[in-house]
């Protein structure tokens, strides 16, 4: 049985919905949980739930979009409990509209909360995790970022940005046993109100996603994984690279590309590059250049 006794986990946006479900499960499995929410009352309500069930928790109200607010919150947690082992970047908002009708302020606000909110939290906990030689960070991405969703250009862009952040932090943190992954949840929260039939929402309870978050916080967690979760089912999503082909560097390269398009897009033999450098190495190899010793 997975036991997080002795671990300290910060969950952002945990006053309701997915964050609340994550916080309750983590506390039930022994973690001390810092419950963040923009609303102090909502954060305290979840803390009360946890303590009533015999768990340990503290309210950590703050705006993740405010770097100073986040640093103060992290300092308070470290003062109270001496460490932070896990961070679940869950806080988020929606401002849905078709791209042509969306005010730029709504685009910027969603990016600020989702992306910069995660950046602020990661930057504040990173030194603690590095010095401990242990850390687990979970970014909350979305199928709207991975695959798109009408009316959510701002949300989709923000959620895919978190995948890019995860990809790089997973490489930079590996030497310190800081593992960084993404969860892509489908859950019946306020964000899905009115978007799906009630019969479907009944199968998409937030607590069905939380076991995936728990797994990504364990010592045995993977690194650099996108875990999709909903209705009790789990899958992984990957950004792959086809084998491709050398096309041309000459004046007819556009026409050659069109002619070789089936080979360029053939997914048989596709791979998951270990880092961004791998794409360039593959392209050089196709062009006949080998890595110099």
TrEMBL record:
Keywords: Oxidoreductase. GO terms for molecular function: oxidoreductase activity. It comes from the Bacteria. Residues 7-186 form the Ketoreductase domain. Pfam families: adh_short. Gene3D superfamilies: NAD(P)-binding Rossmann-like Domain. PROSITE patterns: ADH_SHORT (PS00061). SMART domains: PKS_KR. Residues 266-293 are annotated as: Disordered. Belongs to the short-chain dehydrogenases/reductases (SDR) family. This is NAD(P)-dependent dehydrogenase, short-chain alcohol dehydrogenase family. It comes from Pseudooceanicola nitratireducens.
């Amino acid at each position: 049985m997975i036991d997080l006794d002795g671990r300290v986990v910060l969950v952002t946006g945990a006053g309701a919905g997915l964050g609340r479900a994550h916080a309750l499960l983590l506390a039930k499995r022994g973690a001390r949980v810092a419950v963040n929410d923009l609303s102090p009352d909502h954060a305290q309500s979840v803390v009360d739930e946890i303590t009533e069930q015999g768990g340990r928790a503290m309210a950590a109200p703050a705006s993740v979009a405010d770097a100073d607010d986040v640093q103060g919150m992290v300092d308070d947690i470290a003062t109270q409990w001496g460490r932070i082992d896990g961070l679940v970047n869950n806080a988020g908002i929606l401002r849905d509209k078709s791209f042509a009708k969306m005010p730029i302020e709504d685009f910027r606000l969603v990016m600020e909360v989702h992306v910069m909110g995660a950046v602020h939290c990661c930057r504040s906990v990173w030194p603690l995790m590095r010095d401990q030689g242990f850390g687990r960070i979970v970014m909350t991405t979305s199928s709207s970022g991975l695959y798109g969703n009408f009316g959510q250009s701002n949300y989709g862009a923000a959620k895919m940005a978190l995948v890019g952040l995860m990809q790089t932090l997973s490489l930079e943190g590996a030497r310190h046993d800081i593992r960084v992954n993404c969860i892509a949840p489908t859950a019946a929260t306020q964000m899905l109100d009115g978007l799906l039939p009630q019969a479907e929402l009944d199968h998409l309870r937030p607590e069905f996603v939380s076991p995936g978050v728990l797994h990504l916080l364990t010592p045995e967690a993977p690194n650099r994984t996108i875990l999709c979760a909903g209705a009790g089912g789990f899958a992984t999503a990957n950004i792959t690279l086809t084998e491709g082909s050398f096309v041309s560097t000459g004046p007819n390269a556009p026409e050659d590309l069109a002619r070789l398009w089936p080979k360029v897009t053939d997914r048989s033999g596709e791979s998951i590059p270990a880092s961004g450098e791998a794409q360039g190495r593959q392209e050089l190899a196709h062009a006949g250049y080998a890595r110099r010793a």
